[in-house]
Design a protein that fits this description.
The protein is an alpha+beta fold. The protein contains eight helices and 16 strands. Helix 1 packs antiparallel against helix 4, helix 1 crosses helix 8 and helix 6 crosses helix 7.
Length: 301
């Protein structure tokens, strides 16, 4: 049992306090997953580079940061660098043809790349969302949309790398949060690996992100990718997928994992439980509706 949340501002150029909203909505669902929490936040796109989020799982953070900067400088240019707690945020010229994350992780001990994108930034850690918000100063983040997750570990171990959201490595700006279990995970993973894709964890949720990204790279629309996933993913699932310009959601044929959405002219709000929506958006005109079995929905700018 896990909790998933999301918000999407519809208007072109519309933004809101997505960092604070995602963590507050996750906190409303803390009983669904006390092990870890995380968010994928989408801010104004970097026009001449990429934003990289690196987790440094070491006590010598200053040394680790220096090693990352040295490794990155060998394959691209670091334009900006800032660290809050163990999360290092870089703006780089490019991603070395999709290999930047591999370079960092291969050359720097206990460094893990959580995201690469023009607008997406993934931050996650053990503990409750409110603690992570304070630890990484997420409440200051203003952006167009975001997704979040509070996790109860079932099929994989409790650590930061296996926490959600998952980046669709190496595709920029694509992330997923998921509640459920993908029972044909190994089959799908082998198929995607044969197509040249690489996975960073053993978590079954990661395959959803890469699956959708692969469909989009092949020229499919988000709607087509979501509908194909209903047929291709086995198991029980409700998930949110986010791209640079929109969000989508899907629910399996058994509809055992809850997922609700509410929208008005300005925004869409998504959550596993109604309390997460009502607590932050008490407007009676914003009416939560449950996604039905095998239903998909999406919103794009």
């Amino acid at each position: 049992m896990c909790g998933i949340v999301g918000v999407f501002y519809k208007g072109e150029g519309a933004v809101g306090p997505v960092g604070q909203l995602m963590t507050d909505m996750c906190d409303q669902l803390f009983r669904r997953g006390p092990d870890s929490a995380g968010v994928a936040l989408y801010g104004p796109p970097v026009t001449d580079g990429l934003v990289v989020r690196v987790d440094l799982d070491r006590p010598d953070l200053d040394t680790a940061e220096g090693e990352v900067l040295t490794a990155v400088d060998q394959v691209t240019t670091v334009k900006e660098a800032a660290r809050v707690s163990r999360s290092l945020r870089l703006i780089v010229t490019d991603d070395a043809e999709g290999k930047l994350a591999d370079v960092i992780e291969e050359r720097v001990r206990d460094a893990r790349v959580f995201s690469v994108g023009r607008s997406m930034e993934i931050v996650k850690d053990l503990g409750m969302a409110c603690d992570i918000n304070q630890r990484y100063e997420l409440g200051t983040f203003v952006g167009s949309h975001g997704i979040g997750h509070t996790r109860m570990a079932t099929e994989s171990r409790v650590d930061i790398a296996h926490s959600h959201p998952f980046w669709a490595r190496p595709f920029p700006d694509i992330s997923v949060v998921h509640n459920g279990q993908i029972t044909n995970y190994h089959k799908l993973r082998r198929r995607l690996e044969q197509r040249g894709h690489r996975f960073a964890t053993e978590n079954d949720s990661e395959v959803i992100a890469v699956y959708i990204a692969d469909k989009l790279e092949a020229g499919g629309s988000l709607d087509q990718a979501l509908r194909a996933s209903i047929e291709d993913l086995d198991g029980t699932f409700a998930y949110l997928i986010s791209t640079a310009n929109g969000v989508g959601l899907a629910r399996d044929q058994f509809a055992t994992k809850p997922l609700l959405y509410a929208e008005d002219d300005e925004k869409v709000v998504l959550a596993s439980e109604e309390i997460s929506i009502r607590a932050l958006f008490p407007d009676p005109g914003l009416v939560p509706r449950e996604l039905q079995a095998k239903e998909v929905r999406w919103w794009l700018r």
